Amino acid sequence: MEESFECSGLLHIPVMVEAVVDHLIRKSTRVIVDCTFGTGGHSLELLKRAPDSAFLIGIDLDDEALEIGSRRLSQYMSRVLLKRANFGEISTILADYAGMVDALLIDCGVSRLQVMKPQRGFSFDREGPLDMRFDRSSQFDARKFLNRVSFEELSDLLLKFGEKRGREIARAILERGEKGAIRTTSDLADAVKSVVRFKAAKSLARVFLAIRASTNRELENLANALDSLPLLMNKGGRVCVISYHSLEDTIVKNAFKKLSGKCICPPGSLSCTCGKVEAFRVITKKPLKPGDDQIRRNPWARSAKMRVMERCD
Questions:
Q1: Helix, strand, coil content of the chain in percent (nearest 5)
Q2: Distance (Å, whole) CA 33 – CA 44
Q3: Would 248 disulfide with which of 122, 197, 240, 243, CB 3.0-4.6 Å?
């Protein structure tokens, strides 16, 4: 039952929920899409504020989260359609709603349900299998990713995610992997700690994030979803995206620029080839961030950045 998750602290607390609802819901809102439904925290608040005629489509890959979320939204389920799917494919998922979406949310964060359960393998301080899959039906998990990745690929990945000692850590991980010593989250954490012996928490967070993002193709899915927005959004419809690290925010910022008619080609380019199209206007000139009170209530929100734009043609 949902209550057991609430009591054990596993039910996800929606990030910046007041700002999300304030920016997305208006009297004209009819079709709402929560691309990262999770356990339904944002969706519940969106439906509370939305007109009674509004309909919500929730998308998520995690079957357990969808089940919990359906119970959480039980009083609204006559106005809810849940789809177990990858939000990176929303152009296909929402083909029947093309040009009809009035409010769309993408929250790039990982769910508390996933992180707090050791058997899901997301956390470096909880012993569990090296899994990290959002989609538990997928045959490709974090362990298989590490078994297939080359030294150069893993090094580049860790450096890309901000780990300055990425090459040393990649070598330590792969050397242990060759000996069959990387099977659990603790094994992976030990490999990182063998290189970063003191104050390892930040390095552990970056390494686990990089491997999780690659296992689930998180950056690619985000970019694909953003590319689909002109086909989906109704005139005046609003899009809200919450990101949690610089790579995500850069993808969102550049997509918003391109979709609002601003060129994102490299400086010095002789001609524009980025495919800019003036289909949206950016509502948030700078990303919104949670206040101190929100962070005290929900520490998971501390790195969140929220950007909003509106369909204008």
A1: 50, 15, 35
A2: 12
A3: 243
Instruction: Determine the Cα–Cα distance for residues 276 and 260; give it in Å rounded to an integer.
Output: 7
What does the pLDDT look like over 82-112, one tens digit per residue?
999 999 999 999 999 999 999 999 999 998 8
Q: Where in the chain is the domain with CATH 1.10.150.170?
A: 119-217
Nearest-CA neighbor of 178 among 210, 146, 203? Answer: 146
pLDDT level of residue 27 (50, 70, 90 thresholds): very high
- At residue 12, the pLDDT reads 65
The CATH number fitting domain 2-113+219-311, selected from 3.40.50.150, 3.30.420.10, 3.40.80.10, 3.40.109.10: 3.40.50.150
Residue pLDDT, tens place only, 120-162: 999 999 999 999 999 999 999 999 999 999 999 999 999 999 9
